[in-house]
Amino acid sequence: MNLLFFLTPKAICSYLYNDYTLRQAIERMEHGRFTALPILTREGMYCGTLTEGDLLWAVKNLGCLDMRKAEEHSIMEIAHRKDFLPVSVCTQMKDLLLKATDQNFVPVVDDKGDFIGIVTRRAIMRYCLDTYIMPQPVHSE
Description:
The protein is α/β, with parallel strands linked by helices. It has one domain (3-133): Roll (CBS-domain). The protein is built from five helices and seven strands, in the order ββαββααβαββα. A hairpin with a 5-residue loop joins β6 and β7 (115-120). α1 runs antiparallel to α2 (52-62). The radius of gyration is 18 Å and the shape is elongated.
């Protein structure tokens, strides 16, 4: 099976740009109710992941309880507990599954390193449920 079957394309993904401020990241995550978002350069290259935990520690360590102060800090100043390493479009399914066990989504990049979308753990689990656990009966007429 090809991982593109599970891909949520960049056009409908939420993400942050690496020049966003702490405030912009907080607002984007709050509005979309996300727990983690990919970070991209303006050129479209994947450069990391920002999580709610990263934001929480940044607010604490930078003393940014005032949102005006949060505008003074770039998200790239924030320590990332764990960046979700991307996979290429030719990654084998077993490698995709191994990554998905440890993170909510797996970023996918093309051969040039450009971000093309994500594969969510939910999409993989839905496929397994529909295919292996609750397959639809075949009706013959």
